[in-house]
Each structure stands twice: as structure tokens, then as C-alpha cells.
């Protein structure tokens, strides 16, 4: 979740340049003293009153004051923070001196810091706690933040100053980095309506505020539907489940004062049930409840909201001079156009469907009946056992959660020289008792990098899934500083004293989100305006780190059987590798169908009003196999409808995977998956630079050529043509 809250057009400036569920940070060479002095002289001296706007104090260069956070304090801080930022923007825009980089662009980087602190806390509390009082604050302040962002975008004197600096950058002798800041800022303002006339700005402001309200409502409705469960009263209903999953379901029931086993309506609970539970009727019941989140015709139904959102997006795109939302959204991506994204998706879609046909045929032989969507994972597991003598339950004893985290820390040390150490108990507060905090240091010289917050467990009110976020962003232009980053997961707690055993897929997800954290912990970026990478690049550094889970040094050192202490035997690893492309038809079609429908939805000349009908028709046009459902159906598709961030951009995981697969091949071909030379260049070029240079050019500097799509096809086991 990006929280650099210098608002433009209802979103942060950074969000316009592409972001993950992550903050971006830096620590490059500081700006000159003269540049900073000029910038600071432009801004008014202000003393915030609200507690949550104050600079953070305490150890490690100051940490968020979680124990004192309340919904009321947060609301007051955001309202005051908007006013403080408003005064700063007015001072920049009203400066009588001719516009320069130092008196316009640098103070734009400095503006809004108190609001940054409040909105960092705001994002954490609404996503991880999500109680009624924080939901109420979310509903109230989100449109205020949108309006404040539009005020900045629509400030004509401010825009003219930025445009002048950008248009005259080369004549003024700005560095390439400064020129990139100015030109990207100018272009972001234009994309978000700065060049519209007064009537156009008024209409765009109305659209942005309406979208902000709709995004908040969508998020809250989906979370409410996920805070439900299927209660199983008879032990026969959980037959087939591994003991760890049974214990988790029993614990989930007890925490809700229920008798039996509760399958909570989130993926982390549902997928294991669909994979192992023998009761077919119960699998259908659990599956139906899960895929119908947001689509039940009740108070949490999201279909009308989606129709409103896509219409507003289409209206906004036309107002800004674009044919559709996707064209507008993709201006600052690596793909650039919907056609380029579609070309890659369709290259993978057809072989993925062909693979599904083979997978279904294999499952029918075992099942003796047609395969329904609630059967797929269950019978896939049977086929895996038959074809590869591989049972996922053989793997789970080697993936104890704390050991997996230590393995991730070891990966960070070997690749990038980061050392993760638990902070002394009680020295750093978290926003919830479950949160663990680790100090990050450079192993080479012991220098402090920042703190890593680990929030692993599901709770009522917390959004589903896994993500990375940041609490503080450190930048080189004002001297840098440390970074405060967080990974958030939704594992189910085990009974007291019992190990938390996770699947290989869960372990890869943990390494994925940790990859986001490593990306931003590595940042050496001078200006916040160059902090966020394009949407279809930002998943690349996270996805590539999944590959190290099964590397032999990590298996030997950390993925040891929780009872015997023995490392995973090579024979079992060989089975995993032999089955590496198993079920890739399902995995690819499940994901890619969601990406295709997303692009279809946002390239329509006339937005649909019947969302369920549109979803069915779109899938039929692409030939969606009937045995599979989209990974994210539209009524619960948080990526698309809780912000603009991934809208017309869900393809980005596949785009990033091309670079990810090609990078992993580079490490493997070197004969050492921890090759220090490749790792060092990866850190310095791919991770540390942020968006300080074109990311396609950066990849070519790292790899010596463009990424090879064939590497992706090989990883997924599809024909390379």
C-alpha cells in the first residue's frame, strides 16, 4: 500500500507512477544543501496540533505510536494534515520567484510529511484491524483525501510552475534524474486533469470523489462477506483434511464460540478444504460460498457498485481524452497499450487451456465422473499422487512458519547482505499483539537499514490475502534515513504449543511478499517522485524471490521436518521438481481468466450494467473451461475495485513473470543460484534504483538483452513456439 500522500487527482503522486501493495523508499545521495535550503524557505513553518501528525519518536529513528492510535485521533490528524498540506501547496504555487527545480520540485517532495505519517497509520488500521470505528473513519475521510488531491492537480499556478520547470529542464542544465522528476510530474498532472478547463475539472472532481466512496464501500462489503464461515458439526465432514488443517478449523470454530469445525470464507481456509476434504457435497457448499462473495443479492452485494465504478472510469477516460479506462491507466506502464498486454496474455492463454484439457482427462480417470470446479483441486491432488508419488501432506511438515521466515531471512543475507534480528521484547510496539518486529542491518558493516514488521495471522476485519506495506519512506534528497516495512499474511493460528505448518504454495507466497520488502529495503532513491515503479514491473522483484524456497541451501538450513529435524530429502525435492509444471493449466487459466476479464471490462466502449452477465459472456468468448472458475470473480475482485491501482493492470503479474523467469534462468545458468555477482547487480540495478531510470533499459543493463518470453513458457511447462 503506497502512502506517499502528496495527493494528486485523488491518489498519491507515487501511485500515479505505479506501485504494489507496498511503499517505496530510498536513501540515495542527498540533495545539495543549497537546494534543500531554497526548498525549505518556500514552505511555511507549521506546528501540527494532532498527536498522530507529530514526528515519530523512540528507538530506531522513531517508530509509529501504535499504542496511542484511536479512530478519533486518526480522523482528527487526517483532517488537520490536509489543511497543513494545503498551506504548503499554496506557498509553492504562490511563490513570486521564477520557477526552478529547487523552489518548485523539491518543496513538492517535502510537502505533506505530517499527512504522510497519519495516512500510513490509516492504511494499516483499515486493512489490518477493520473494526467498525475504523471503517467509519475510512468512509468519512477517504472522500476528503480525494478532494484534497484534486485541489492539488487543479491548482493552475502550481501546474504552470511544474510545467515550466519540465519544459525548460534541459535548457536549465538539470541532471537526467532531475529532468525525469520534473517531466514525470508534469505528465502525471496532465493525465489527471490539470489541463482541463474549469468545467472539466469540476466534473473530474465529482467523478474522483464518487470513485473514492465506491472503493471504500466495495472493500468493506467484501471483508464482511469474508468474515463468514461454513460450520461443520460432524467429524466425517472434515475427513481427508490434514491434522494441521483440522486443528485450525477447530480453533476457528472455538474463537467464534461454536462447536465443530469452521471453514472461514477466505482462500487460506477454503483452498486446503477443497484440496483434501473427501465430502464432495461439503466441498461444493464451501466452494459456492467462497466464489459468491459479494454476489448474493444482499447488503454486501457489490454488483451495483462495480457497474457504478466502471461507468465512472469510462466517463473519466473520455473527459481526459482517452478511448477507455485501460488506455488512460496504461500510459505509465511497461506494456503501454492494452494491445501489448493482450498479445502476451493470448500467447499464454491457448496453451494453458490445452493443458487444462489434459488435466481434466487425467482427473476423470480417477474420479469416474465429470469434474466440477469444486472437484478440481481435490482430484488434482489424487493425480499428483498417482503420477509423481507426491502428496502435499508429505511437504507440510518441512514448512513450519517460523522456519520458513528464517529461510527468507537467510535468502536476504546471501543475496543482498541484509541481516534480520528480532528486536528486544517490548522495545518496539506493533499495531496488534501478533506482530513481530525485526531490525534489518547491512551485514558487511553492521549499519542500520530499518525495521521489518511481520503480521502473519488472519483476524476478523483484516482484509484477505497477503501484501506488503510501508510505514515510513526514506529518501536521499533530505538525507535519507531508515525504512519501516511490513509483510501481512493470513495464516490460521495453531492451537497453543502446536506448530504452524504451511503448504509449499504458502511458503512461496511468503517469499513473494518478502521479495517486495527486499525491493524497498534496497532502495537508494533520491526523490520520492521516482519512488514507484510501473505497475507491470513492481511484481517482478517479488515473483522472482519465490524460486529460492526450494534451493538446496535453504532446504538444508531451514526447511527441516518439524519433528525429526531432518532436512527435506533430495528424493522428495526431486518429486517436487518433476511435478513443477503439474497443474499449471489450472493455475494459469484461473489467474489469466481474471486478467482477461479485467482488460475486457476496461476496454469496452460502453460499460456493462449487468456485471454477472458480462462476466459470463466475457469468459464464454475466451473459451473458459467449465471446470475452472476465475481466481477473482468480479464481485470480490479487490485488486480492481478498492482503488484504481490494478484496474486494467491485473495482467501485470504475467508481464512481470516474463522478467522473473528470465532472471531465474540467469541465476541457474551461472551454476550458483546465489551467484554474488548477479545478485549484486540485481540489487544495484533492479532493486535499488526504484524508478530513477526507464525500467526496460534497466533490465537490459542487468541482463544484457530484453527478457525472453520463452523462459516463462518453459517455467509453466508450455510449448515454446
TrEMBL record:
Limits of the Peptidase M3A/M3B catalytic domain: 274-715
A Pfam family: Peptidase_M3
Keyword vocabulary terms for this entry: Hydrolase, Metal-binding, Metalloprotease, Protease, Signal, Zinc
Cofactor(s) in the UniProt record: Zn(2+)
GO terms assigned for molecular function: carboxypeptidase activity; metal ion binding; metalloendopeptidase activity
InterPro entries: M3A_DCP, MetalloPept_cat_dom_sf, Neurolysin/TOP_dom2, Pept_M3A_M3B, Pept_M3A_M3B_dom
GO biological process: proteolysis
A cellular component annotation (GO) from this entry: cytosol
Signal sequence, start to end: 1-22
Domain of life: Bacteria
PANTHER family registered for this protein in UniProt: DIPEPTIDYL CARBOXYPEPTIDASE
Family (UniProt): Belongs to the peptidase M3 family.
Protein name per its UniProtKB record: Peptidase M3
Organism of provenance: Brevundimonas subvibrioides
Amino acid at each position: 500500500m503506497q502512502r506517499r500522500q502528496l495527493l494528486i487527482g485523488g491518489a498519491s503522486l507515487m501511485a500515479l507512477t505505479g506501485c504494489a501493495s507496498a511503499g517505496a523508499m530510498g536513501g540515495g545521495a542527498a540533495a545539495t544543501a543549497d537546494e534543500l535550503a531554497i526548498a525549505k524557505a518556500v514552505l511555511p513553518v507549521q506546528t501540527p496540533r494532532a498527536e498522530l501528525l507529530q514526528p515519530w519518536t523512540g528507538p530506531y529513528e522513531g517508530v509509529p505510536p501504535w499504542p496511542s492510535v484511536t479512530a478519533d485521533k486518526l480522523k482528527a490528524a487526517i483532517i488537520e494534515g490536509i489543511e497543513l498540506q494545503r498551506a504548503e501547496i499554496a506557498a509553492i504555487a504562490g511563490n513570486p520567484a521564477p520557477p526552478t527545480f529547487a523552489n518548485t520540485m523539491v518543496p513538492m517532495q517535502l510537502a505533506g510529511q505530517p499527512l504522510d505519517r497519519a495516512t500510513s497509520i490509516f492504511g494499516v488500521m483499515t486493512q489490518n484491524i477493520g473494526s467498525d470505528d475504523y471503517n467509519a473513519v475510512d468512509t468519512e475521510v477517504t472522500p476528503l483525501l480525494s478532494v484534497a488531491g484534486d485541489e492539488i492537480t487543479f491548482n493552475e499556478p502550481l501546474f504552470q510552475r511544474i510545467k515550466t520547470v519540465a519544459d525548460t529542464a534541459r535548457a536549465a542544465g538539470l541532471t537526467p534524474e532531475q529532468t525525469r522528476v520534473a517531466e514525470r510530474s508534469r505528465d502525471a498532472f496532465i493525465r489527471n486533469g490539470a489541463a482541463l478547463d474549469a468545467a472539466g475539472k469540476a466534473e473530474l472532481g465529482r467523478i474522483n470523489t464518487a470513485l473514492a466512496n465506491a472503493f471504500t464501500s466495495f472493500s468493506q462489503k467484501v471483508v464482511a462477506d469474508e468474515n463468514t464461515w461454513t460450520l461443520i458439526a460432524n467429524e466425517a465432514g472434515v475427513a481427508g483434511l490434514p491434522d494441521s488443517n483440522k486443528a485450525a478449523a477447530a480453533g476457528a470454530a472455538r474463537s467464534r464460540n461454536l462447536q465443530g469445525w469452521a471453514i472461514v470464507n477466505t482462500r487460506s481456509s477454503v483452498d486446503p478444504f477443497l484440496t483434501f476434504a473427501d465430502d464432495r457435497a461439503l466441498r461444493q457448499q464451501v466452494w459456492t460460498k467462497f466464489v459468491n462473495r459479494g454476489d448474493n443479492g444482499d447488503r454486501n452485494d457489490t454488483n451495483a457498485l462495480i457497474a457504478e465504478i466502471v461507468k465512472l472510469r469510462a466517463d473519466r477516460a473520455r473527459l481526459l481524452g482517452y478511448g477507455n479506462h485501460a488506455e488512460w491507466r496504461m500510459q505509465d506502464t511497461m506494456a503501454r497499450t492494452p494491445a501489448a498486454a493482450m498479445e502476451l496474455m493470448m500467447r499464454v492463454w491457448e496453451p494453458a487451456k490445452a493443458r487444462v484439457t489434459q488435466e481434466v482427462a487425467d482427473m476423470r480417470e480417477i474420479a469416474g465422473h465429470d469434474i466440477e470446479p469444486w472437484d478440481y483441486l481435490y482430484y488434482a491432488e489424487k493425480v499428483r499422487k498417482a503420477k509423481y508419488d507426491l502428496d502435499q501432506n508429505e511437504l507440510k511438515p518441512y514448512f513450519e512458519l517460523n522456519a520458513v521466515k528464517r529461510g527468507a531471512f537467510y535468502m536476504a543475507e546471501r543475496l543482498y547482505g541484509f541481516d534480520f534480528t528480532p528486536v528486544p521484547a517490548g522495545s518496539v510496539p506493533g499495531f496488534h499483539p501478533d506482530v513481530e518486529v525485526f531490525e534489518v542491518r547491512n551485514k558487511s558493516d553492521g549499519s542500520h537499514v530499518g525495521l521489518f514488521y511481520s503480521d502473519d495471522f488472519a483476524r476478523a476485519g483484516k482484509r484477505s490475502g497477503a501484501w506488503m506495506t510501508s510505514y515510513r519512506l526514506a529518501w536521499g534528497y533530505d538525507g535519507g534515513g531508515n525504512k519501516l516495512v511490513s509483510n501481512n499474511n493470513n495464516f490460521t493460528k495453531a492451537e497453543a504449543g502446536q506448530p504452524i505448518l504451511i503448504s509449499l504454495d504458502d511458503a512461496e507466497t511468503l517469499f513473494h511478499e518478502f521479495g517486495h520488502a527486499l525491493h524497498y529495503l534496497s532502495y537508494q532513491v533520491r526523490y520520492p517522485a521516482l519512488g514507484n515503479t510501473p505497475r507491470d514491473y513492481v511484481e517482478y522483484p517479488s515473483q522472482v524471490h519465490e524460486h529460492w524456497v526450494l534451493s538446496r541451501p535453504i532446504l538444508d538450513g531451514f526447511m527441516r521436518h518439524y519433528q525429526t529435524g531432518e532436512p527435506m530429502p533430495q528424493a522428495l525435492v526431486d518429486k517436487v521438481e518433476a511435478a513443477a509444471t503439474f497443474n499449471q493449466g489450472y493455475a494459469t487459466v484461473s489467474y489469466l481468466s481474471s486478467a482477461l476479464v479485467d482488460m475486457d471490462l476496461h476496454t469496452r466502449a460502453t460499460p456493462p450494467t449487468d456485471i454477472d452477465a458480462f462476466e459470463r459472456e466475457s469468459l464464454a468468448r475466451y473459451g473458459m473451461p467449465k471446470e475452472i472458475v476465475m481466481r477473482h470473480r468480479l464481485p470480490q475482485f479487490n485488486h480492481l475495485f478498492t482503488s484504481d491501482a490494478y484496474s486494467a493492470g491485473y495482467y501485470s503479474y504475467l508481464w512481470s513473470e516474463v522478467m522473473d523467469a528470465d532472471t531465474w534462468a540467469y541465476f541457474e545458468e551461472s551454476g550458483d543460484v546465489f551467484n554474488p555477482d548477479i545478485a549484486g547487480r540485481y540489487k544495484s540495478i533492479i532493486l535499488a534504483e526504484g524508478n530513477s531510470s526507464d525500467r526496460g533499459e534497466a533490465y537490459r543493463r542487468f541482463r544484457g538483452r530484453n527478457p525472453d518470453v520463452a523462459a516463462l513458457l518453459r517455467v509453466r511447462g508450455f510449448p515454446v513456439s
